[in-house]
Amino acid sequence: MDFLERGSAEMMGIFYRFKNRNFEGSEGQAIKNSTFLLLTTIIAKVGSLLFTLIIARLLMPELFGLYSLALGTIVLFAGFSDFGISSAMVTFVAKSLGKDDPEKAKAYFKKLIKAKYLVVLLATFVLLGAAYFVANSYYNKPIFYALLAGGLYLPISSILGFIDGIFRAVNKFNFILIKEVLYQFLRLSLVPLAIFFLLKTNIEEGFLLAIIIFILSICLGVSLAILVFFSKRKISFLNSKMKKLTIFEKKNLIKFTIPITFIVLSSAFFGYIDTIMLGRFVTGEFLGYYAAAFSLVASISAIISFSSGALFPIFARLKGKKLETGFRKTRLITFAISLMAAIITFFLAKYLILIAYGKDYLTSIFLLKLFAVFVLMGPIIGLYESYFISQEKTKTIAILLIITTIINIVLNIVFISYGLKFGMYEAILGAAIATLISRGIYLFGLGVWKKFKNKFP
After folding, report:
1. Is residue 378 within 8 Å of residue 304, measured between CB atoms?
2. Disulfide engineering: 209 pairs with which of 146, 256, 308, 428, CB 3.0-4.6 Å?
3. Do 354 and 218 share a domain, yes or no?
4. Rounded distance, CA 174 to CA 172, Å?
5. pLDDT at 437
6. What is the distance, to the nearest Å, from the Cα of residue 340 to the centroid of all Cα atoms in its chain?
7. At how many degrees (to 10) do helices 394-420 and 247-281 cross?
8. CA 302/CA 341 separation, integer angstroms
9. Is pLDDT at 65 greater than 50 in this prediction?
10. What average pLDDT does range 422-435 have in this prediction?
């Protein structure tokens, strides 16, 4: 059967399962999980986009740029609070439960949550200890108090991600959906309201940014409390007795975690190095222009990436030629959708900026046109990553990310430095070009590696 016909048949099967409320068996469970995951992803992406647009309009370019810089710095430090621990927990707990061994699942959970607490505590102390130097010496911008507030944001968000993984491991995605709805509702309600009233006072911008990060931390904290509440009542393996892990199991756990660690850390640098480096050389206003353009294309790319990801499970179960045929056709569909979105983004950049952010961000127009290339590349990169992960080739992604992250850092140094000879606007253009080139190299590497692996498995 042709791949598209196969996909249509499966979609009809899914429709009839929902119509008849039939979720029996592993396939029914997978469909149910995918539905909750779909709803969670839609709510998260739409909520994040709305939140960014609202606070960008309220804060205006200068403060929005400083907010983006502070949050980006906190998230970068948060990358050092995982080391692949959450992914390892989901994988090994799920495998243990799949073998009907809840005692072993609890053993993996206990060992990994201790490691999680340790690295979270370490990352938090490093952030707090480095906050003054980073804010006042490296950036020379009023984000010191915001980084201190990050001392609350970082541990809560990191632990939340870990607890979230427990529900993924036991296939209880409905509770993750509840958590996401609550979080998006809280931050869309509380943060804009706080900004609206605080801007009417004479509060210093540093304190304003700190209050925003603090309120976001509270929103995350409430979401974490909800998940902890449900975990004590709905996650049965946590009440089981605990087995000891063997030396082999401990070594296997470490072996699994190492490549994931490189992926997490490299991804954090890959995603924020442009903002971190720009933060040292340009004002908050230009950071705001850069963040506005990139946030918009990142949202568009995420929506398209999810569409391709929704198609991928249809052929992910296939092997050999059928798998490759399915991948090629999905890649073609993704490329067509991405190309159309990129063209629309390029030609309608002015109107997208006006609608999304208002006239104060019109300086971002050319940046958005430039980042239209990212709209084309991002979803295809996501598709390749899904392919390699489904084939358990995480080392491939880790190696390519490390290489391209180094390239990205070098290019940012060169292009930002050269752009500064002409002005701050040229500097942010340099960062944009460096980002696009490095991501293009990453995509090229994924494509070449896939061809090589197919010829020499």
Report:
1. yes
2. 146
3. no
4. 6
5. 94
6. 24
7. 10
8. 12
9. yes
10. 94
Widest CA span in the chain: 67
Check if the beta carbon of residue 147 is closer than 8 Å to that of residue 125: no
**Domain presence at residue 358:** yes
Asked if 240 and 259 sit in the same domain, the reply is: no
Domain holding 296, by residue range, is 255-457
365-385 exposure pattern, b = at least 16 Cβ within 10 A, e = fewer: bbbbbbbbbbbbbbbbbbbbb
Whole-angstrom distance, CA of residue 42 vs CA of residue 45: 5
Residues belonging to the chain: 457
Total of domains in the chain: 2
CA 229/CA 64 separation, integer angstroms:
35
Closest to 385 in 3D by CA, of 441, 304, 447: 447
125 domain residue, yes or no? yes
- The rounded Cα 54 to chain-centroid distance in angstroms is 20
Share of the chain above pLDDT 90, in %: 44
Q: Are residues 266 and 224 in the same domain?
A: no
- Considering 94-108, 112-126, 270-284, the range whose residues carry the highest mean pLDDT is 112-126
Verify that 396 and 320 share a domain, yes or no: yes
> What is this structure's pTM?
0.86
In this structure, the answer to whether residues 35 and 70 fall within a common structural domain is yes
What is the Cα–Cα distance from 186 to 199, expressed in whole angstroms? 20
Same structural domain for residues 98 and 235? Answer: yes
**Mean pLDDT, all residues of the chain:** 83
CB of 242 within 8 A of CB of 107? yes
Token pair 């072996």 in the structure block, residue: 255
Q: Which amino acid is at 8?
A: S
DSSP state of 245: P
Q: Which residues contact 206 (CB under 8 A, 6 or more apart)?
A: 142, 143, 144, 145, 146
Distances (CA, A) of 142 to 63, 209, 210, 278: 10, 9, 10, 15
Using the predicted structure, report yes or no on whether residue 121 has a pLDDT greater than 80. Answer: yes
Q: Does residue 6 form part of some domain?
A: no
Q: How many CA atoms lie within 13 A of 326 on its CB side?
A: 21
Residue 350 in tokens: 């002015």
pLDDT digits (tens, 9 = 90+) for 205-240: 999 999 999 999 999 999 999 999 988 888 888 887
Measure the CA–CA gap between 327 and 350, rounded to whole angstroms.
35
**Contact indicator for 451, 387 with CB cutoff of 8 Å:** no
Q: Write down the residue that tokens 């070594």 correspond to.
A: 251
**Mean pLDDT on 120-127:** 94
